From TrEMBL:
<feature type="transmembrane region" description="Helical">
    <location>
        <begin position="95"/>
        <end position="118"/>
    </location>
</feature>
<dbReference type="GO" id="GO:0015658">
    <property type="term" value="F:branched-chain amino acid transmembrane transporter activity"/>
</dbReference>
<dbReference type="InterPro" id="IPR001851">
    <property type="entry name" value="ABC_transp_permease"/>
</dbReference>
<keyword id="KW-1133">Transmembrane helix</keyword>
<dbReference type="GO" id="GO:0005886">
    <property type="term" value="C:plasma membrane"/>
</dbReference>
<dbReference type="Pfam" id="PF02653">
    <property type="entry name" value="BPD_transp_2"/>
</dbReference>
<feature type="transmembrane region" description="Helical">
    <location>
        <begin position="176"/>
        <end position="196"/>
    </location>
</feature>
<feature type="transmembrane region" description="Helical">
    <location>
        <begin position="226"/>
        <end position="246"/>
    </location>
</feature>
<protein>
    <submittedName>
        <fullName>Branched-chain amino acid transport system permease protein</fullName>
    </submittedName>
</protein>
<feature type="transmembrane region" description="Helical">
    <location>
        <begin position="309"/>
        <end position="329"/>
    </location>
</feature>
<feature type="transmembrane region" description="Helical">
    <location>
        <begin position="70"/>
        <end position="89"/>
    </location>
</feature>
<keyword id="KW-1003">Cell membrane</keyword>
<dbReference type="InterPro" id="IPR043428">
    <property type="entry name" value="LivM-like"/>
</dbReference>
<feature type="transmembrane region" description="Helical">
    <location>
        <begin position="18"/>
        <end position="35"/>
    </location>
</feature>
<keyword id="KW-0812">Transmembrane</keyword>
<keyword id="KW-0472">Membrane</keyword>
<feature type="transmembrane region" description="Helical">
    <location>
        <begin position="258"/>
        <end position="288"/>
    </location>
</feature>
Length: 355
């Protein structure tokens, strides 16, 4: 009786996807707490940057990995979220949770509009359309009719919200921002992981594999693609809102084409279609440029060479990762786990054979 009672939680863990994801989310929050309290101010700032980059990458990996739609313009949705947050804080002074929710809604609405056009495009045509969006949308901030509202080329200054007084007057702002971004990342991963195992997630995979077969199976292909694009853009909008809060700025120069390409790089290097891979990829594309710049600075090279060394090292590391792990970092982690399980002796089976 006692054995059955103790086995019940384990059985529930294995059978219920929501319970399993909820447990992992709680563990993630605990890890975030202990990691952030052990870091200094600059490291907490980097942790916050990793978290909001992982949020945008997770949305993109659902779009490209599950649904099979290519987007080279997700930086535009990040820009929309950042400007939405800046405008809501400046003009309406809403609570931070409502401001971030507003960025999610605006980003998702724009994503659905783009998704209507994306549902009619395929392959390079879709990639070219989203590329044009990444180049053109941030430049609207300097358009004559919107310059006063969006701040032109200088953008909008975002005043950071101080930590609650209940945490103490000397509580570090960077740690508070890391907590906010980390909480949003955990919520994002929880929602998207449950989405992937839902009926909509199964429809996405069917559409990715074969649109005609999916349509014959009763899957609404166009609607699935539009909804997927909207969901992906909504989380990019959330990442943009967090970007504005952490960096205290929403300016067109922060949302260049390089941002969109780095998000796609993070999704591919981490493992396209894997939410854990989105976190790995975000860590790599966020921290690697800083590490390579530090290495180049310590080498005492001439300035002309020093300026290009970080880009060279960054490219080399990405190439090595892609060559070693063609399916992304997450695929390498799975292979390593499989090898460890095979190498581990099967003790229960041996004991049964001995008896």
């Amino acid at each position: 009786m006692t054995a059955l009672a103790s086995a019940a939680p384990l059985r529930l863990w294995r059978q219920s996807t929501v319970v399993r994801h909820l447990t992992l989310s709680v563990l993630g929050l605990v890890v975030l707490y202990f990691v952030s309290t052990s870091l200094d101010a600059f490291a907490n700032l980097q942790l916050a940057q990793v978290c909001y980059t992982a949020i945008a990458t997770a949305g993109l990996t659902v779009l490209s990995g599950l649904s099979g739609q290519i987007s080279l313009g997700h930086g535009a949705f990040v820009a929309v979220g950042a400007y939405t947050t800046a405008l809501l804080l400046e003009h309406l002074q809403w609570p931070l949770a409502l401001v971030l929710l507003g960025s999610v809604v605006v980003g998702g609405a724009l994503g659905c509009l783009v998704g209507v056009a994306a549902a009619r495009l395929r392959g390079p045509y879709l990639a070219g359309a989203t590329l044009a969006l990444a180049v053109g949308l941030p430049s609207l901030a300097d358009y004559h009719g919107l310059r006063d509202l969006l701040g032109g080329a200088n953008g909008l200054i975002v005043t950071p919200e101080p930590p609650p007084l209940s945490l103490g007057e000397s509580f570090p702002l960077e740690r508070w921002q890391a907590w906010i971004c980390g909480l949003c990342l955990v919520i994002t991963l929880f929602l998207l992981s449950n989405l992937a195992s839902s009926k909509l997630g199964r429809d996405m995979r069917l559409v990715r594999e074969d649109e005609q077969a999916a349509a014959l199976s009763g899957v609404p292909v166009a609607r699935t693609q539009i909804v997927t694009f909207g969901i992906s853009a909504a989380f990019a909008g959330l990442a943009g809102g967090l970007f504005a809060i952490v960096n205290n700025l929403a300016a067109p120069g922060a949302f260049t084409l390089a941002l969109s390409l780095s998000l796609l790089t993070a999704a591919v290097v981490g493992g396209l279609g894997s939410l854990a891979g989105a976190v790995y990829g975000a860590v790599l594309v966020t921290l690697l440029p800083n590490w390579t710049a530090d290495l180049a600075q310590q080498a005492n090279l001439p300035r002309a060479i020093y300026a290009n060394i970080p880009l060279v090292l960054y490219g080399l590391v990405l190439i090595v990762v892609i060559v070693v792990f063609p399916g992304g970092i997450q695929s390498g982690v799975r292979k390593l786990g499989a090898l460890l399980r095979r190498a581990r002796p099967d003790r229960p089976q041996e004991s049964r054979q001995e008896t």
